[in-house]
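hey
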């Protein structure tokens, strides 16, 4: 038996992954345990979970892999620091050196036989994209902010090998380009990019010509260059990654996080999204031309832009597109572990139908005994149901327009709740989106919600070319369900745009999850029962958390989130809780939430 621990850390979304004889046993973000959103610290608790899940200790590891090359990264940061700060660069480097010391501090605890490797950042992303995919051979594209030097790569996966053949290097970065607009529109970098994507349909892309003339030049071969005059991210200590020249170009100052959204920022978001899509399409086209292959694998933070993924999917460049569900830096932990198993050790790979991610349900899970102990410890009132009863009862609550916190099985790996740590609701009421945003999630009113649909009925409700099990593609709502967006201009959030208004965005799109019985049988049964009761095989599926908080991990996290919000019911394992029955529970609700 060969055990490999993969780790990503020290930028954002630290994580750990355990691979045993080529199978992904466990993978989880550090934030699940620390309750610190996008936690970048060394993932001590995530490592502990991964090892405990397999009954191992650190000394049992055969290989330990880190998701980037620390010395090469230091070289790039040092060059940037010296270019900007001159003799004062040492303070920046001291911080980086301390982080690398943290990496080294874990190693003496391993046995003398543990072999330690670091794998280049974008190679880790590429491995995470290809090795779990269902393809024997595929083109690979990775896009993010920056690894060591690389910001974008094109490569090929075949059998048990991954090779990168073309790269774009820092400071020319499509990820940092998008983050600059995220920052300009008042959202947090490395956290709020999906807000920019969600805001875009409310605007008009009137600034695309200006952006392409002044900020970024995109060549037909997919290469691109950014104008350094307008960006400040080369400075490793920069807080504001856009400056006055950027603001002057766009005609208004950067929006502060608490300022109201206006049409101007919606138009900027629409423009940035349109240019990002154009660049992604050019990169994908280049990948197809370079490799001659008709299947594509995507990873890196840029691959979490599900609107751009859809554009690639419908472009005709590829017959099939597969995206790693933990496409961001957390997925690098999985990529480095699989790269060591397949590429370094030479072990064969047999692609699995669908993929080999186990539905991305790779995190912590708690059985009914552990759940009951938690509920009893705080005096919660509940009733326990057998699986068939549970599915019928919860489907009935949802059909009665109740909002339910749904906590089952193992936690998802990646940023999306896929039916195990979810808040569920009926997509049909016109008021549901507003209530979910304002009273449950405590977030901005423009934010859309994703539909979970039975895979076997997806094509009747959405224009979807294939499966979308990980919420990484948008799909237009079927034309027969759409309503015209009339009388609504600018940032009008409450306009019903389809017969399923809670999951239909302003442009009639939806960030789709197709649910099949193979990946998540219980969630599939719940959707099937809701379909039987209502005739609609679709539910609102949003992550079980509130704004500024990681997705719930433990039963106590779920209970705390339930009591902090206006959720009507909590279903945790086999136990059902009604809000009306919960009085004076001994639950500490003072844990801080850091608004993003």
């Amino acid at each position: 038996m060969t055990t490999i621990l993969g780790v990503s850390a020290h930028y954002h979304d630290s994580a750990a992954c355990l691979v045993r004889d080529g199978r992904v046993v466990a993978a989880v973000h550090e934030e699940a345990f620390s309750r610190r959103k996008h936690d970048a610290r060394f993932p001590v608790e995530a490592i502990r979970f991964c090892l405990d899940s397999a009954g191992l200790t650190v000394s049992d590891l055969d290989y330990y892999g880190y998701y980037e090359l620390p010395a090469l990264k230091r070289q790039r940061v040092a060059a940037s620091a010296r270019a900007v700060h001159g003799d004062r660069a040492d303070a920046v480097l001291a911080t980086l050196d301390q982080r690398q010391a943290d990496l080294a501090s874990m190693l003496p605890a391993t046995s003398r036989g543990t072999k330690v490797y670091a794998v280049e950042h974008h190679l880790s992303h590429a491995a995470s994209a290809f090795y779990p995919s269902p393809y024997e051979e595929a083109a690979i594209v990775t896009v993010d902010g920056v690894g060591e030097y690389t910001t974008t790569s094109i490569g090929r996966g075949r059998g048990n090998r991954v090779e990168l053949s073309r790269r774009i290097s820092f400071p020319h970065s499509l990820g940092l380009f998008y983050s600059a607009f995220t920052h300009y529109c008042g959202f947090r970098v490395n956290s709020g990019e999906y807000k920019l994507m969600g805001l875009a349909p409310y605007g008009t892309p009137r600034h695309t010509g200006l952006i392409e003339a002044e900020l970024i030049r995109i060549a037909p071969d997919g290469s691109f260059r950014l104008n350094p005059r307008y960006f400040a991210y080369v400075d490793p200590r920069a807080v504001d990654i856009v400056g006055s020249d950027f603001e002057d170009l766009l005609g208004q100052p950067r929006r502060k996080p608490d300022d109201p959204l206006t049409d101007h920022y919606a138009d900027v978001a629409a423009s940035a999204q349109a240019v990002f899509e154009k660049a992604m399409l050019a990169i994908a086209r280049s990948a197809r031309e370079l490799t001659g292959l008709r299947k594509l694998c995507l990873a890196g933070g840029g691959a979490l832009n599900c609107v751009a993924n859809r554009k690639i999917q419908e472009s005709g460049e590829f017959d099939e597109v597969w995206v790693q569900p933990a496409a961001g830096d957390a997925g690098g932990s999985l990529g480095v572990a699989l790269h060591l198993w397949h590429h370094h050790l030479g072990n064969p790979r047999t692609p699995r139908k669908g993929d080999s991610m186990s539905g991305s349900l790779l995190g912590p899970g708690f059985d009914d005994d552990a759940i009951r102990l938690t509920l009893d410890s705080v005096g919660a009132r509940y009733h326990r149901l057998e699986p068939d009863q549970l599915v019928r009862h919860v489907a009935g609550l949802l059909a009665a327009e109740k909002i339910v916190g749904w906590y089952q099985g193992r936690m998802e790996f990646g940023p999306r709740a896929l039916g195990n740590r979810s808040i569920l609701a009926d997509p049909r009421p016109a008021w549901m989106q507003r209530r979910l945003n304002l009273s449950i999630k405590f977030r901005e009113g423009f934010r859309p919600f994703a539909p979970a649909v039975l895979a076997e009925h997806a094509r009747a409700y959405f224009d979807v070319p294939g499966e979308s099990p990980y919420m990484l593609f948008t799909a237009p709502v079927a034309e027969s369900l759409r309503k015209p967006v009339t009388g609504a201009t600018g940032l009008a959030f409450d306009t019903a745009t389809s017969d399923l208004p809670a999951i239909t965005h302003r442009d009639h799109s939806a960030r789709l999850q197709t649910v099949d019985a193979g990946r998540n049988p219980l969630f599939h049964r719940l959707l099937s029962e809701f379909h039987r009761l209502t005739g609609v095989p679709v539910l609102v599926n949003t992550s079980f958390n509130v704004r500024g908080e990681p997705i719930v991990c433990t039963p106590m996290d779920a209970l705390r989130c339930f009591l902090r919000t206006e959720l009507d019911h909590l279903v945790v394992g086999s136990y059902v809780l009604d809000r009306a029955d919960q009085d004076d529970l001994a639950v500490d609700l003072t844990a801080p939430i850091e608004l993003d």
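The chain has three domains: 3-134+324-360, 169-322, 368-581. The longest strand covers residues 150-158.
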